[in-house]
Amino acid sequence: MKKLSRHLTTLFMVLVALSLSCTDHDIPEKIVLKTLPIFSNPNQLKCSIVFALDVVKTGELPVKEYGAVYSANFDGHSPLTPIPTVESNLKVIFDQPVNAGYKEKIGPQLCSNNIYYRAYAILIDDSVIYGDILHFRVD
């Protein structure tokens, strides 16, 4: 009986030591972005549009850069990417601080009737978070 008791005690001590040595690693929350529809620049500049987004949640990881990324068909024959990425397409980088709420920035003169775009954020660990892809098209 004493031998069984020693084994149970030893087993119990090992289990306690293992449970105390395990740490719970919380995964930090990432920013949440919502892409908003583009609109014409209110200053009436030809082909000038405004990109807008909503920072729904700021998250816990610092943001190095954020804004809108887009793919546009300028001449009707250029290849158009329906899934714009920061690695392959043009960006409009926002200057405003990254805090919750509505953000906008006037983009370049973009005379196109076919644009795919979405919000993006590059985090401190170089991962990229995207908002939904929106498509602007005028026939």
CATH class: Mainly Beta
Unreliable residue runs: none
Distance between the termini: 88 Å
* Radius of gyration over C-alpha positions, nearest whole angstrom: 25 Å
By helix and strand content, what is the structural category?
A: mainly beta
What is the residue-averaged pLDDT? 86
Beta-strand residue fraction: 35-45%
Number of domains: 1
- Write the CATH homologous superfamily: Immunoglobulins
- Biggest beta sheet summary: 5 strands, antiparallel
Global morphology: elongated
Helix content: 10-25%
CATH architectural arrangement:
Sandwich
Report the count of strand segments: 8
Number of alpha- plus pi-helical segments: 1
**CATH fold title:** Immunoglobulin-like
Encode the helix/strand succession as letters: HEEEEEEEE
Model description:
This protein is mostly beta strands and 139 residues long. It has a single domain (32-137), classed as Sandwich (Immunoglobulin-like). The protein is built from 1 helix and 8 strands. Strands 3, 4, 6, 7 and 8 form a 5-stranded antiparallel sheet that branches. A 3-stranded antiparallel sheet has the order 1-2-5, with no helix packed on it. The longest helix has 20 residues, at 2-21. 21% of the residues are buried. The model has no long low-confidence stretch (mean pLDDT 86).
